[in-house]
Design brief:
Thiol Ester Dehydrase, Chain A, 5 strands, alpha+beta, 5-stranded antiparallel beta sheet, about 130 residues
Length: about 130
């Protein structure tokens, strides 16, 4: 398993429900953004990969366990660990912690993605440079 990449963000009003608690589906956005930033950290953008070499990553499945709520203005640390799962798929083990002096685990997730050709949407081998 790779060393975790950590992306930090803050909870904004738009992320919350009427009570100032992060709406459950918005955690998926935090997870997605962290995977995108993980890719950028490695020198790739999703737009560039879609154009050349013509690949996209599509989510096959998500398993999320909600442990505690995040609230308005919380600073979050979203971790990403990548594990190859065959030739065309990968699993991202991700966690969201409330950041600070005493970090608290809020979300534990496994996101399984498949690499596909951007034109045909058929599975395509994940390039070694992305592993």
């Amino acid at each position: 398993m790779s060393v975790p990449y950590v992306w930090r963000t803050r909870v904004y009003w738009e992320d919350t429900d009427g009570g100032g608690v992060v709406y459950y589906a918005n955690y998926l956005k935090f997870l997605e953004r962290a995977r995108t930033e993980w890719l950028r950290e490695r020198g790739y953008s999703q737009a560039a990969l879609a154009a050349d070499p013509g690949i996209l990553f599509m989510v096959l499945g998500v398993n999320v366990e909600y442990r505690a709520p995040a609230r308005l203005d919380d600073l979050l640390a979203v971790s990403v660990q990548y594990v190859l799962d065959g030739r065309t798929a990968a699993i991202f083990s991700q966690q969201i912690h409330r950041d600070g002096i005493e970090p608290q685990l809020l979300v534990d997730a496994q996101v399984r993605v498949v690499c596909v050709d951007s034109k045909t949407l058929r599975p395509r081998r994940i390039a070694e440079y992305l592993q």
